[in-house]
Every structure is written in structure tokens, then in C-alpha cells.
Amino acid sequence: MQIDSNPLLIWFVIGYGVLMILIGLYYSKKIDNNDDFILAGKTLGPVVLMGTLLATWVGSGAVTGGQNSIAYSFGIWPAIGYALPSLIGILTILVIGSKIRNYGKYTIAEILEMKFGKVAGYFAAIIIILSFIGIVSYQYKGLGFVLHVSTGISVETGTIIAAVIIIFLATIGGLMSVAPTDAFSAFLVIIALAIALPLGIHVAGGWNHIIDSTPKKMLKPMGSLSAIQILGYYIPTLFLLLGDQNIYQRISASKSDKSSRWGTIGWIIGLLIVTPLISLLAFISRAIFPKIEPGMALIALSSQLPIFVGGLLIAALTAFIVTTGNSYLLSAATSVIYDIFNHIFKKAESDKMLLYTRILVPVLGVIAFLLTTFFPTILSVQMYAYTVYGAGITPALLAVFLYPKVTKVAGLTSMALGLVSTLIWEFFFVQSTGINSAIISVPLAILAIIIITPLTYKEKDNDELKATTN
């Protein structure tokens, strides 16, 4: 069956877009400095924090890549299981949440610089920019899919329009406006997915018909994937989440440790609802559209539902895509300004830093758009971006909080080895082996810390480092 565009759906997308712009403009008036722009003035309560954490994490990577593409291409059970690495990551963040908040830093690179020196800070900033621009690029493409289904315009034209929308919203309000719109979007998505599920089953001809039209291998516990292929999808997700600068910034933006804790618990509950729903809806879509781009599965299904439900669903998907794009674009700009620009040109006045950040957001947004032409599918760029970050930053970052004895040499070696091994494997071995680079690069980065730290640890140096960071 071919995907038929439904022009009526665009009104739901427009309605959502207008509402988000109005909210963004309202909150942009409350911004006085970069602390407001990047950390929302540290005013986020548990409900808004829960919503912004969920919406940031479950963006286009989930509704056009991640569990959506896995359910459509490989089977329902590995897609539902895709929630497992996220749950492990969130529970870990719950344990170290107060440490994250009390560090009081804008960026991950600032944390790594405190522990491993300026070189680590620059290195981290470069990795964050490489990864986050990749993540922003597939948000554009995801929204391009939405506009294609709702208007009939080409995906390419839709992607250009998506880039303009996301760049504009990220520029005007920063986290002060992104966080409340995230919270609204998160609750909208949960409601839309829940309503769409029974109707989707009905439209597809009933559950028995869906099962009968699905290849039997896709119904197995691991679907059509091998164990090592599943790990190739799960490991990048886990290690991005464990060190995701966006998540750390939101934890830091909470009112208190109590708000942080309850917001994170709410995030877990939301994830346990959203992941199975997305997986099931994408799996259902396969029975209706067996030969479409996997990233289109959930979006295509919206065109077959009753207009109100389909419109609500496509507006909800737009919500997640836009808010995630805003967040990662803003975070990438923050890294450039604070971790590179501010070091090279020394400390600038707060109001100028805010101006520079707002100028840089559209520059990076355009670069992200250019990147959309280099990867064949959303899932492929998603796994690349996740692994670059997860191997290059997360092991060293977690060591800061969980392994105080980690040395500067060990941290820097872990970051370099994680990044270089990822790039080498992505360019030369992924296509020939079918194995995700995370299977190779993440263990190497972890081993570097475990092996090198005992060989280079000196009690005196560690005491001096503690004195400079306390």
C-alpha cells in the first residue's frame, strides 16, 4: 500500500507549531542572561523536568529511528527491549543526580576539564559538536517525513522547512522556553500514542491479521537480529544517555535535589509507557505499508487513522521531533561558546555570551542540515552519533563520578581511543561486517580507564587535584 498524503493533517501540525512559537516568545521575555538561556534559571520543578527529560530523550531518534525502525525492520520484541538500555541509564543518573546538579557546570566539557585538564575540555567539545549536529540532522529529516505525509511535499522540501522551524525555536528562547514546551509535548505524545494503538490495530485488520502478515522470524524474542546486532543498537543508546549533556543540563536546571529525583522517576514512568506504544504502532504499520522507508512507519500510520486521532498523533510526533532538535542544537552551541570560544578569547560579559550563543545556533543548524545528505537512513546516522558520543565521552565522564582515582592520562586515552576507534570502524568496517562500531569502541574506552589508571595513579597528584576542584 502506498502512503497517501492527507492535507487536513497539516492543520494539526500548524496548530502545534503556532502554539510552540507563542510559548517560546512568551518565555523568551524572561531571559536576562546565559544562565536563564541555558539552565532556565535553575527553576524547573518535577513535572516540567519530567516532561523535558522525556521529550528530549524520545525525539526523532525514537519516532523515526530507534524502536520505530527496529520494530518495522527486525521485529517487535527487540524494539520493546530497546527501553532496557534507557532504563539502566536513567537509574544510574538517578543515583548520581545530586552530584551532577551540584557540579554547577553548563557543559560536560567543563566537568571533564576540571578532572583531566584543558585538552580534555577541548576534545570533549569537539566530540559533542560532531555528535549533536548529527542528532539534529535527523530531527530535520524526521519532521520532513511528517510534512511529506501531511502536505504531499517532497521529503527534501519538508526537511528544509523543518530546519527553519527548529533553528528559529532554538534561537529565540533557549531552555527557558524549550523546557515548558517539552513538558506539554511529552504529555501530548503519551495521550496520542495511547489513543492511536487500538485504532491502529483495527485499521490494520485486527491483531491476528497483523501477526499472519509478519515474517515468522520477526516474532522471535530477538526478531531477525543476532545477539551481537542487538547489542550494537542497545550499547550506543545506553552510553549516550549516561553522558548526554542535554540530560545533565536539565538535571542541573532543576530547583532542588528533590525536584531532580522526582522528575527522573517521572521520566522512567513515561519511558515505560512510550517505548512499547511506539514499537507496537510501528509494528502495526508494517502490516499496512510493507515496503516503505522504516523511518516513515509511525508517521505513515497516522494517515490511516480517523482524522482527529491521526492529526493528534502527527502533532505529537512533531512535538517530540522539534523539542529534541531544539535541545541538541542549543547544547551544541553552548559547547562551542563555553568550551572553545570562551577559552580562546577569555571570559566575555554575560550579555555578550548570550548574543554569541544566539548567533551560533543558526550557524550550527545549517551545518546539521548539510549533514542530512550523507547518511542513507535515520537509524544509521542515529547509531553513528550515539556511538561517537558514547565511546568518546561517557566512559571518562562516568569515571569522574564513580571512579575518583581515574587519572588524567587514563581519561584522555579513553576519550581518544573511543573517538578514533569509532570513526575507523564506521568508515571501513561497518558495511562489510554488519557490526555496529559501539561493540568495538565502547569496550576499548572502558578498558583504557581500567588498565591505565592503576599504572599512572599517584596519591600526591590526586590530592592536589582534589584541592583545586573543591
Characteristics of this structure?
mainly alpha, 470 residues, Sodium/glucose cotransporter, 80% helix
Task: Walk me through the topology.
Blueprint: H1 9-28, H2 34-39, H3 46-57, H4 60-63, H5 66-73, H6 76-80, H7 83-103, H8 108-116, H9 118-151, H10 155-203, H11 207-212, H12 227-243, H13 245-252, H14 257-288, H15 297-302, H16 307-344, H17 350-371, H18 378-392, H19 394-402, H20 408-428, H21 430-433, H22 438-456, H23 459-469
Helix pairs in contact: 1-10, 1-16, 3-10, 3-13, 3-14, 3-16, 5-14, 7-12, 7-13, 7-14, 8-9, 9-10, 9-16, 9-17, 9-18, 9-20, 10-14, 10-16, 10-17, 12-18, 12-19, 16-17, 18-20, 18-22, 19-20, 20-22
Q: How would you explain this protein's 3D organization?
A:
Keywords: Membrane, Transmembrane, Transmembrane helix, Transport. With about 475 residues, this protein is mainly α. It has one domain (about 10-375): Sodium/glucose cotransporter (Up-down Bundle). It is about 80% helix and about 0% strand. Helix 10 packs across helix 14. The protein is globular, with a radius of gyration of 21 Å.
Q: Care to count the β-strands?
A: 0
Mean pLDDT: 82
- Described by the principal axes of the CA atoms, the overall outline is globular
Largest sheet: none
What gyration radius follows from the Cα positions, in whole Å? Answer: 21 Å
Number of domains: 1
Report how far apart the termini are. 63 Å
In the CATH hierarchy, what is the superfamily?
A: Sodium/glucose cotransporter
Structural class: mainly alpha
- Counting H and I runs of at least 4 residues, what is the number of helices? 23
CATH class: Mainly Alpha
Which consecutive residue ranges, at least 5 long each, have pLDDT under 50? none
The proportion of residues in beta strands is: under 5%
Helix content: over 70%
